[in-house]
Amino acid sequence: NKLKELEISGDAKLSSMVSTIESQDYTGDLTLSGEKSELVLRADAVHVGGALDVADRAKGLVVAGDLNVEGSIGESGELTKLKVTGDTSVVGDVTTPGMQNYRQNLELIGDEEAIFKGEKVIVGRTIFSNDSLRRMIVDGALEVDGDVGKQNSPILGLKITEDLSLAGDINSIGELRFMKDVFLLGGGASYFR
Predict the structure, then answer these.
(1) Backbone angles phi, psi at 128, to 5 degrees
(2) Tens of pLDDT along 99-119?
C-alpha cells in the first residue's frame, strides 16, 4: 500500500526513500540524512517550503516527478548530485559538486540572480522565468536541449563559467557572458536575442 499524499508542517528530516501516489508537501526546510548515498522522492509533485539540504553525510537526490523549492538547494555543499525527472522551479541557489540534471523545464522564480554551482547543469527542455526577471549564473558547464528564456518572457541575463551546449535560442534582455566554448546542438539556427 502506497500513501496517496504526504504533508508535513514545519521542518522535516528524511533518511530513506519516500513514495506517494500524488504529492509530497514539506512546508519548512527538508534535510536529507542517514547512511544511504542517494535518496529518492517519488511523487507527481514534491514541494519544499524552505531550503533543501543534506545534514551529515554527502549524498545525491533523485526526484521522480516535479520539484518546487522555495529556498536554496544544497547550500552545505554535501548534496553530491541532483536529478529531477519532471519540471523544476526554484527560488534560491542550487549547489552540488557533481551533476544537476533537470529532465524537463527549469523555472527561475523570485528576484535578482539564480546561481547554479556544479560540474554540469543539464536541462532537458526550456529555462524560463515567468513571473519575474532573473539573471542566471552557472558556475560550471550548461547543456540545454531547448531555449533559455522565452520570447514573451526573457531572462535578465546569463553568465556561464564553463562550456555552453545549446539546442535552442537565448531570449535575454541583459548581458550574455560565456567564459568558455559555445556549442550549438540544433539542426537549424540558434538565435541570441
Answers:
(1) -150, 170
(2) 999 999 999 988 788 999 999
